[in-house]
Amino acid sequence: MSETLGQIRRGLGARGRPGPAGAPEPPGSTAADRPLARLIGLLNRPLTSYYLIIGCTVLLLAIGLPLVLSTSLDSALDQGQSPFAAFQKQLLGALAGLFVMWLAARASPRLFRAAAYPMIGLAVVGLLLVPVIGVASQGATRAISVAGLTIQPSEFAKLAFALWGADLLARKEKLRQLTDSRALLIPLMPGAAILALLVLVGHDIGSTSVLLAIFLSLLWVVGCPRGTFFGVLGLMVFALIVVILTSHYARQRLNGWMCPATATTPACWQPTQGRDALGSGGLFGVGLGASRSAWGWVPESSTDFIFAILGEELGLVGTLSVILLYGGIAYAGIRIARRMTDTFMRLATAAVTIWIVAQALINIGAVLGLLPITGIPLPLVSEGLSSLLVTMAGLGMLLSFARHEPGAEQALAAAGPSVPRRILSWLGLGVRRT
């Protein structure tokens, strides 16, 4: 295998592309090597991460919007609303998210670093308001209502904590304090604990798990000593056990996860119906909008269990495609983090990537019955403006960092004017150079 890869690399041009047409192939190369060579050449290009994030994001939005329409019809008709109300809100949120993503992609990395402390302060204030003016839903209080809009501060806290933690550890690295476990964990660990406790007050176990995943990713990427890392991990597991033993809500979720497949109790209804819907789609599904389970059979089908309706309407092919798209985001984020020389950008990229991928895995695992139901949405697919906008802002930040990869600025300059500039030029509004 190593000899084959060596032959492929020798057959690539200086920029990772195949040689000119008609050039003799290296000895021992076969027709099967050529697609692999092209794939390696594409993955080695400077802007691979940039375009991969854009493509995966747009495709996930394109899949999620029809699913939101399909899963929201039943509840909208029951409440006497327009059947397209939730879809229209989600569509406007997606358009606003694309604009936020574009702004974030054009922003300087220094702007994200400067916003870290104001954002973590706003996140704490928002989480403190949840127990006071929060809106309860399904036994949990996670959102507040502002001017008719429902806002989830826990979603905002994920991005804020990723930026704050990355900036904090980058400063400690500059001061050469990362070798001391005490200096490494303070105040990062107390900050993570405060955010987790504030989120747990509203019984939001899913968002708490994501915050802890961000915390662990920061420690891992910054090079935390193994003894300290596994000690922190053990402490988190112990805290999770305590929460399960002392929280009635957490025990209910755990009991629902342990339900047998034939159980019909209220706690077992959602996971049982979700698995039935997921498996009823077969290979290609029943078609978009043709779901029967979305009509009152699967609770929270437009948010927590939208993956179950995805399996019913698009089948195994659709579910695997969505998983591959999240895999594409994971690959792009890891690639950006590995190529960054700036500590802040490397840590922030890893934290945001882990946040989005971990949230997707927790949601999918709950639908499959591999994990307890935690009530967190599927990123970019589930209904919910807070999750959608914050996730797209985080992806826009990754695009901004991808523009600073080695060779990316030169590749962007060689690609010509950006799409917005081309549109302005077509409208006769472009800025002329003198």
Roughly what is the average pLDDT, rounded to an integer?
Answer: 82
Work out the radius of gyration. Answer: 23 Å
Instruction: Enumerate the strands of the largest sheet in spatial order, edge to edge or round the barrel.
Output: 1-2-3
Q: Kindly state the percentage of residues in helix.
A: 55-70%
- Return the domain count: 1
Classification by helices and strands: mainly alpha
- Poorly predicted runs are 1-23, 427-434
In whole angstroms, how far apart are the ends?
56 Å
Record field, number of beta strands: 3
**Describe the biggest sheet?**
3 strands, antiparallel
Amount of beta strand: under 5%
Number of helices: 18
Shape call: globular
Helix-strand topology string:
HHHHHHEEEHHHHHHHHHHHH
Describe this entry's structure for a reader.
The chain is mainly alpha-helical. It has one domain. The protein has 18 helices and three strands. The chain has helices at 2-11, 33-43, 48-78, 85-106, 109-114, 116-133, 153-174, 181-185, 188-201, 205-222, 226-246, 248-257, 266-279, 306-339, 343-368, 385-402, 408-414, 419-426, and strands at 134-137, 140-146, 149-151. It has a three-stranded antiparallel β-sheet with strand order 1-2-3. β1 and β2 (140-146) form a beta hairpin. The radius of gyration is 23 Å and the shape is globular. The termini are far apart. Mean pLDDT is 82; it is low at 1-23 and 427-434.
